[in-house]
Specification:
single chain; about 750 residues; Hypothetical protein af1432; Beta Polymerase, domain 2; Ubiquitin-like (UB roll); 4-stranded mixed beta sheet; about 50% helix; elongated
Length: about 750
């Protein structure tokens, strides 16, 4: 299918040849496996593509339409369906001719448009061959981006034709395209089991990358072929006689190693051409799997096997579905000959891989075709469930070849592989833990997106960081990778320990003041023995652990302070009587000296109870829960009252700061007359009060006349909450709006 460039004006014969190669007639002969209706659809796609590419020429001077026809012809060789052939004819129309996807959907239906769109997206990806180590990731990315395996098959047909006609391209492009083909497309063909295409792409790449070596090796193989022809013919006759004697029907075919694989073997094993012994071999096709093993026995009786050269790829098939028995035998004149035994069905898979399903179905329209397709997919896609029919086959073909991974780019075109469902935060931690910890925003393909956005194959992801930022506990709800999860937890735990330690220090200082000592004793030689005795009493390893335990509520500050004061008194230190009197005098007031002041900047060590949602302006109390730090409740909260009845000594004085640094959540319940736009009106009223909606519970009573909705809103303080409630009460169809959860506010 080469399209040789000419410098002289084209002759009449050339013009006729061009017209023939640009016509649909050449393709029609290969479509005999399709129904008349399918052929008509393919013809319609040809007409559309021909019109779209009108006036465009290839480098050879041929009409551009010759390329889509050649690609479709290759797909027809693999017996692909009508949709795939239509997409092959239209594959350059979307990119080169200004045709839109909508237009393709209207003319040819969504499946064809999706295939063309998939091909267009793959064309936009460019592999930088200088980054050799990324070739494997790029291959996987291409496979994963094609959610339908037909996209890759058409892409391989497209690349095959481009390689066949590469002589017409400028020589400056040969190196890049041939390297890309060798690194990316040939291994994909191998992964899909398309052995013929794999060998051809390798040899064509070799021809354009190393023309001199290719020419030298071609001459050597041609010479060797003529020298060994007699030998191979003799072996073939002897083998045929053995099988005829055993009454086994077989088909024998010669097999020749590809030029590129000979070259690689010489290079990797440092061999001369004369030392490569397995250039020629024989394939023996037999009716059944059992016959493969019988054939092996007969051959081993005829010639001696070479030890260590037997491989059973039938019992253990290769990942791409390949099955055969391989053995190397010492033939006449001491020449090694490789034999491959396989059934006809195995041969189809060995040569055509993923296309075997369509090929075999076309030539054997019986039930075994689906079984073959099932076996093929079982190994190719590592599908655990058994596939039973053609419909299921298609469902599985549409699954990614790498179902558990997603491949994305960094802004510098590095490829990262992440688990499917991974988010921006997973991506950030995959780059570096410092990037993850400091992430504040992100862009995918240049567009701003939320951090919980799931990544798709081919996305270019850019993360925005800030020095002051730190991980958010909510990230644990959506991250997918173990790395991100452990890094976030580690950071939060460290932060929690630091904050709990700080809170514990404040609580112990406060308790010690109440006992008449202005401050905690220092950690020095003078007070060392006292701290040692105190740690022995509490069972803590060191002072830091003791303070953290107090902050987390695992130990009660008052009890530890009393023990510390006893130790100080025993050692001869006296309390300050004036300080003791003042502390006792103000102890009953919540805003007494030493009450913990809250401004909202506390994160891990202080929690605001969800039962009553305290906000600045509320009268509040602090409860040191066991191991959960300080929990703040509204003073009259029913839950707090129950806890006080059981654990009064765990309650401490807390108060609001004059200037809280953030907003706080408050629960409200709104009752309204059910009707169109009720929720929208409520949302508008809250927005007018500058109160953000955090959560909505609409209940299950949608059919009733009066409806109750529960909101969680973010407000600055009780005054701000009152403004929001007043706005709601004035809203049309709202009967009642009140705060929920908090028993009272002070």
């Amino acid at each position: 299918m080469g399209n040789a460039a000419t410098t002289s004006p084209p002759t009449v014969n050339a013009a006729v040849a061009n017209a023939a190669s640009a016509s649909f007639a050449g393709l029609t002969a290969k479509l005999d496996y399709l129904s008349a209706a399918d052929v008509e659809q393919v013809r319609a796609a040809y007409r559309f593509a021909d019109q779209a590419h009108l006036g465009q020429l290839r480098n050879s001077g041929e009409p551009y339409i010759t390329h889509p026809i050649a690609v479709a012809a290759q797909c027809a060789e693999w017996k692909l369906d009508a949709q795939a052939l239509m997409a092959a004819l239209l594959h350059d129309a979307l990119e080169d001719c200004g045709i839109t996807k909508i237009e393709l959907i209207e003319r040819f239906g969504s499946p064809v448009a999706e295939l063309v769109d998939g091909l267009t997206k793959l064309d936009k990806l460019h592999f930088n061959t200088r980054e050799e180590n990324q070739a494997e990731s790029f291959r996987k990315m291409l496979l994963a981006m094609a959610r339908d395996v037909r996209v890759i098959l058409i892409k391989l047909a497209d690349r095959s034709h481009n390689m066949r006609t590469m002589s017409d391209m400028p020589k400056s492009k040969w190196g890049r395209i041939a390297s890309e083909t060798l690194d990316i497309y040939a291994p994909i063909a191998h992964r899909l089991g398309l052995n013929g295409t794999y060998r051809e792409l390798q040899d064509l790449s070799f021809k354009h990358l190393r023309p001199w070596r290719y020419a030298t090796l071609t001459k050597a193989v041609t010479k060797a072929r003529s020298r060994r022809r007699d030998l191979i013919q003799k072996v073939q006759k002897e083998v045929e006689a053995v099988f005829a004697g055993a009454g086994m029907p077989v088909r024998i075919a010669g097999r020749e190693k590809s030029l590129f694989s000979i070259y690689k073997k010489m290079q990797n094993k440092h061999l001369s051409f004369a030392q490569v012994t397995d250039i020629y071999g024989l394939r023996i096709m037999v009716p059944t799997v059992i016959d493969c093993y019988k054939a092996l026995g007969l051959l081993h009786q005829l010639y001696k096997p070479v030890p260590g050269k037997f491989k059973d790829h039938i019992a253990i098939a290769k990942l791409n579905g390949y099955q055969s028995l391989h053995t190397t035998l010492v033939g006449p004149a001491g020449i090694n000959v490789e034999f491959q035994m396989r059934t006809e069905a195995m041969h189809v898979v060995a040569e055509s891989g993923v296309a075997a399903h369509w090929l075999y179905k076309a030539s054997h329209p019986d039930a075994s075709a689906d079984r073959l397709g099932s076996q093929w997919l079982q190994s190719l896609l590592d599908i655990q469930d058994e596939t039973r029919d053609a419909a299921e086959f298609w469902d599985h073909v549409k699954v990614d070849l790498f179902p558990d991974a997603v491949y994305v780019f960094t802004p510098k075109s590095q490829i990262l592989a992440l688990p499917r469902g991974a988010t921006i935060v997973d991506f950030a931690y995959a780059i570096h833990s410092n990037v993850g910890d400091r992430t504040v925003a992100a862009r995918i393909n240049g567009e701003q997106v939320p951090l919980r956005t799931e990544l798709k194959n081919g996305d270019v992801v850019e993360v925005v960081t800030a020095q002051v930022s730190s991980p958010n506990p909510n990230w644990l709800d959506f991250v997918r990778t173990g790395r991100a999860r452990s890094k976030i937890r580690h950071h939060l735990k460290t932060m929690e320990q630091e904050e709990s330690q700080s809170l514990g220090l404040r609580l112990l200082q406060q308790a010690v003041r109440a006992e008449g000592f202005a401050d905690l004793p220092a950690e020095n030689a003078e007070y060392g023995p006292i701290w040692k005795k105190l740690l022995g009493f509490t069972g803590s390893k060191n002072r830091h652990e003791l303070l953290t335990d107090i902050g987390l509520g695992k130990r009660i500050a008052n009890i530890v302070a009393k023990r510390l004061v006893n130790l100080l008194t025993e050692a001869g230190y006296k309390s300050d009587a004036l300080l003791l009197t003042r502390e006792r005098f103000t102890a009953h007031e919540s805003n007494g000296v030493g009450a913990i002041t809250l401004d909202g900047s506390e994160s891990a060590s202080v929690q605001f109870a969800k039962c009553c949602h305290p906000i600045p302006g509320d009268s509040i109390v602090g409860y040191l829960g066991r191991g959960e730090g300080l929990v703040v409740h509204v003073h009259d909260c029913a839950v707090a009252k129950k806890l006080h009845h059981k654990d009064a000594e765990r309650f401490i004085g807390v108060d609001w700061s004059e200037d809280p640094v953030r907003s706080f959540k408050a629960g409200i319940t709104v009752t309204g007359i059910n009707g169109k736009g009720l929720l929208a009106k409520m949302a508008t009223a809250l927005a007018a009060a500058e109160a953000d909606i955090v959560d909505i519970d609409m209940g299950q009573e949608s059919a009733q006349e009066a409806r109750q909705l529960r909101f969680l809103i973010a407000v600055r303080d009780t005054a701000h909450l009152e403004v929001a409630l007043r706005n709601l009460r004035r809203t049309q169809h709202v009967i009642k709006a009140e705060r929920s959860g908090a028993a009272s506010s002070g």
